[in-house]
């Protein structure tokens, strides 16, 4: 059994089949790409896997220490606790909280204290505050954000906000990290740095990373294998070089948008 097994998964919005009979297997410790033209269903697939949407049909099963768990219909927070974390195509941070607090809130989710305890700084919050703060700064350092801890998240430039989102996702100690266009809006330097970071965290944290990205050089550079969606259906799966030569993929991109 794979770490995550996606079987015949579909999502319809009215008459539109946004995701249609998709089958994907994710193993431990790999870096997988998910590509496809605009509107192909990539974000919808992430939303199905992380509990934002309930599938119209099909199954998502995860292998955990306690055996196989069906994720269909589970709340996003439950799915997060089981080990799936994600970033959003449209950045979702607490804009008015500091960089540090944004990470602390995510760490607290993992370590049992609630959101308000961390924002309002109740006594239970102070008990392990220092420990969590050290961990938060450790994570921020990986993404070179450690000097910005006191800055409000909304004041960070776009590229740094995207990196902060990844830190928040990592803080929940995922087994699988889903990144939805992490390089969107970044300049080539930032993209190159991010490419290295994604490679590094996948190895160092011993996790599986699934990457949606329109920047083909990033995808081809870091992914071991790639799935391609078009109009909700999987049209190809293979190594970067197989995907680059696949006639259906070339047609989807040339004929696509
Ligand atoms: N909540 C929704 N209600 C209705 N239609 C939706 C909803 N979410 C997505 N769709 C539609 O489903 C299809 C797939 O959208 P999705 O956002 O998953 O594509 P995508 O591959 O992530 O595209 P992009 O590369 O532009 O981000 C699109 O036609 C979109 O308009
Ligand atoms: Mg999308």
How do you describe this structure in short?
This is ABC transporter ATP-binding protein. With 257 residues, this protein is α/β, with parallel strands linked by helices.
Structure characterization notes:
The chain has 257 residues and is α/β, with parallel strands linked by helices. It has a single domain, classed as P-loop containing nucleotide triphosphate hydrolases (Rossmann fold, 3-Layer(aba) Sandwich), CATH 3.40.50.300. The chain contains eleven helices and ten strands. The chain has a six-stranded mixed sheet, with helices on both faces. 41% of the residues are buried. The model has no long low-confidence stretch (mean pLDDT 92). It binds adenosine-5'-triphosphate and magnesium ion. Residues 42-43, 89 line the site of magnesium ion (MG). Adenosine-5'-triphosphate is lined by residues 13, 16, 18, 36, 38-44, 89.
